Amino acid sequence: YLDSRSLSHVVGTVRREMAYRPGVKIVKRPGRTLDKFEQSIQQAILDIEATSDVKVTLREVYFTAAKEVDAAGKKAICIYVPVPLQKTFQKIQVRIIRELEKKFAGRPVVFIAQRRILPKEKRNVRSKQKQPRPRSRTLTAVHNAVLDDLVFPAVVVGKRTRVRLDGSQLIKVHLDKSQQTNIEHKLDVFSAIYKKLTGKNVTFEFPLTE
Question: What are the pLDDT digits (tens) for 108-117?
Fold first, then answer.
């Protein structure tokens, strides 16, 4: 058996090897292969890696999936990144989005961390999990994290939930104004993607600061 330090070293080594595999930027689970769309995304990322001045950082990152999402009348591109690599990737994320949107004729591109929601523990029922469910794996935490991922590099500064007469809910999200000119044209796309991923209705606003 490996202790926690040894296990972390092994996991880190595997991640580095996966990230540096030549010609591979989207890594699937064993037995699964890339579809044609994912192959096109992978090739575009490899092209950027080969010619860009951010290739050193990009070489350290791999992705887990890429999907087309119908969002506000547009074919958006949603690319998933492993949670442990997200902070590294966010250093160059804005640049990569800009380059990919050029390559795909202006189609909106978003990056979301690949998170897993764990079910709530039931009372008086033995769980297969030896440890309590981490708060980061709860439904609410994952949905909030998806929201943060969608609007990056903007920051969520406030949220309000409005209950309509029919009982449905609308989440109003306030974003910092510093990124308004960069993402304002994508807000309808963000709302549509969030709805598809979580089933929740959301709108975005840039509140006026005094």
Answer: 999 999 988 7
**How far apart (Å, rounded) are the C-alpha atoms in residues 127 and 90?**
35
Return d(Cα 104, Cα 91) in angstroms, integer.
22
Query: Can you list the residues of the chain whose pLDDT is less than 50?
Result: 1-14, 16-17
- The pLDDT of residue 131 is 67
Q: How much is the pTM?
A: 0.81
Q: Are 111 and 101 in contact (CB under 8 A)?
A: no
Q: What residues does 82 pair with on adjacent strands?
A: 114
Contacts of 97 (CB under 8 A, 6+ apart): 109, 110, 111
Measure the CA–CA gap between 52 and 177, rounded to whole angstroms: 29
